[in-house]
Amino acid sequence: MSGEKKYILCYTREPNEEQAYPPKLAYSMHLACSDDGYRYRELNRNSGVLFALATEAPNGSLRPKSLKNPYLFDLADGTFGVIAVRTEAGGEDDIESKGSVLLFKSADLLSYREIGLLDLKGDTYVRDAACEFDRANDRYVVRWSDGNGRFYRNSIEDLMDLSGASEPEEAEAFTVEGVSADIEGIAPRNSLPVPRDVADRLERKLTAPTNIRNEAPERVEAATDEQLRAVPATSFYSDGTTAEKPVDWDTTGIDWSRAGSYRITGKIRQPRSSFPMAVDRADPCIAKWKGKFYFIATNDADGNRSLSIREADTISGLATAEEVRILDTETYGHLKSFLWAPEFHAIGEDLYLFHAGSTGEFVNIQSHVAKLKKNGNPVVATDWEEPVRVVRRDGSPLFEAGITLDMTIIQWKGRVYAAWAQREFVPSDLGSWIYIAEIDPKEPWRLTTDPVLLSKPDYGWANNRTFVEEGPYALITDKKIFMTFAGALVDATYCVGILSADPEADLLDPASWTKGNYPLLTSRSVPGEYGPGHNSYVTDEDGFIWNVYHARNGIDGPRCAGLRRVHFDIDGYPVLDLTEEKDLKPELAEVSTVVVVNR
User: Would you call the peptide bond into 558 cis, given omega within 30 degrees of 0 as the criterion?
Assistant: First the structure.
């Protein structure tokens, strides 16, 4: 049995300090794995993987929810179920959940579907609950207790029928056998034996990979240094993934004028970037234009009153490149403050600068677009046309009941889309939501379709301390169209979430997009980097994709720009926390091959 199964423990955590691990994060389901059912390893850096969805108030605002006392169990069809007590965000009783438990379904313990509140038909708050499938009677049995110390049981044939439970019967007391595990803050719940392949997959997905070996081809044919430089090595990682990397080959022993075989060595070229790359720079973006790289970001040093760019031949050169101001709040009368979240995007033969700005007040922040003049130089301020406000297809302002910001571009299959953050203030503050629409590639400040809502901050990690999802940015691969975004307050609780869509999907259909249950990047991802978020992506001269992001170099430190190579996991999803020391172990960096020179 031990060879066929592993054990998955579900648990919540005790809340910590407000910026460290507050209730909205602690009151979620966490997972740990064990080979023997006794010694458990935390997964996902001891962070939650399953959060309760917020509910919606009559005015459209969100009511955040949390969960306590999750219980993991097998479903009859071979998948997994979770029931939990739904609470208010801080763990208090949730009146809407009285007499009910929250039900989830999952095929792999990574992606979860919230089914809803399973009515146990009791006029009392549920304090604890467990569920098992009774195969002998072909039905589920839910055991639960209330705050008065009474115990009950219900049976239900179809668990997905939320109103189908029997009337509750008083029953004997039960306890969920807790597991002792040396995990910070753990409030343990039950452990479930699962197939080894399910547990192994969980560990590969929820543990940062580490470089375990590197290999070059055993034998290559080449006639010149240039041909040899194109021969990469393959890095292998602990999760079973690989990545091709360039090699700086030592060719001093090769005589290219004579045929023969030569044994040579080389060193894998490791992308390197020290954090921070730029202090007091947030919402960073790097773009490549006509052979050069350009960096731009929100300028926290002057209160967001100017935008400056850096130019370099390589991405690494941007760290020390001179900054040149191209826009400030004295340039135009309609842009007097809040120059936020600038992004460069090439559409066709033209380069555009997307950014937010206000006529003066916070409530007037709106998305704008500036075009680089024909044959213009991006580092020359006068070569940029005056920024114009984004409008709908009929020419009316994009949004007038609140603010718009963080606009980005997705170019796919000959069509151009804009995605942005939008926050309604009138008649009520609904928080920041993410929208998408198609735009005119010749006039990218003009929408050609109506805006479509893609995502709300409905998970606790995204509505932590404020209701915000913002900073969308696309990462397109041959497997998926990804859109990462930032959530929560812009402090140490800031984090990066993800939406994904299939390449053939209708990007304007919200049903085409799937939101991840948990964030990809948080303050627990990389030691010393707090509140990572609002990221973008760029491909360098070696073909590496870089995550360009901001984080704080102390829990209350300034926002700073950083860079890290994007890895891809076993499903082709981006890994944003693969640090340099895990990306390539220095002692494994040297590789060798035999070069065959034919003459």
Answer: no
For residue 326, give the nearest of 297, 347, 365, 288 by alpha carbon: 297
Measure the CA–CA gap between 473 and 287, rounded to whole angstroms. Answer: 13
The pair of structure tokens assigned to 159 is 């668990």
Distance CA 303, CA 282 (A): 12
The residue among 25, 126, 140 whose CA lies nearest residue 519 is: 25
Q: What are the Cα distances from residue 228, in Å, to 175, 224, 235, 259?
A: 65, 7, 18, 15
* Over residues 545-561, mean pLDDT: 97
How many residues comprise the chain? 599
Residue 569: the pLDDT is 97
How many CB atoms neighbour CB 449 within 10 A? Answer: 14
Q: Which tokens in the block code for residue 115?
A: 């089914």
Rounded to whole angstroms, the Cα distance separating 358 from 344 reads 19
Phi, psi of 526 (to 5 degrees): -130, 115
Radius of gyration of the chain (CA): 27
Q: What is the pLDDT of residues 359-389, one digit of tens each?
A: 999 999 999 999 999 999 999 999 999 999 9
CB-based burial, 120-136: b 16+ in 10 Å, e otherwise: bebebbbbbbbbebeee
Residue 447 to residue 310: CA distance in whole angstroms: 30
What three-state secondary structure class fits 45? helix
Active site residues: 283, 470
Tracing tokens 């919540």 back to the chain, one arrives at 12
List C-alpha distances in Å: 21 to 33, 378, 522.
Answer: 22, 42, 11
The predicted pLDDT at position 2 comes to 47
> What was the pLDDT predicted at 272?
82
Q: Which of 103, 92, 165 is nearest to 127 (CA)?
A: 92
Name the pLDDT band for 177 (thresholds 50, 70, 90). confident
Helix, strand, coil shares, percent, the chain, to 5: 10, 50, 45
State mean pLDDT over 331-338. 97
Site of tokens 């869509």: 501
**Alpha helices per DSSP H over 308-379:** none
Cα–Cα–Cα angle for 39, 41, 47, rounded to 5 degrees: 140
What is the pTM (predicted TM-score) of this model?
Answer: 0.95
- Distance, in Å, from the CA atom of 384 to the CA atom of 399, rounded to the nearest integer, reads 25
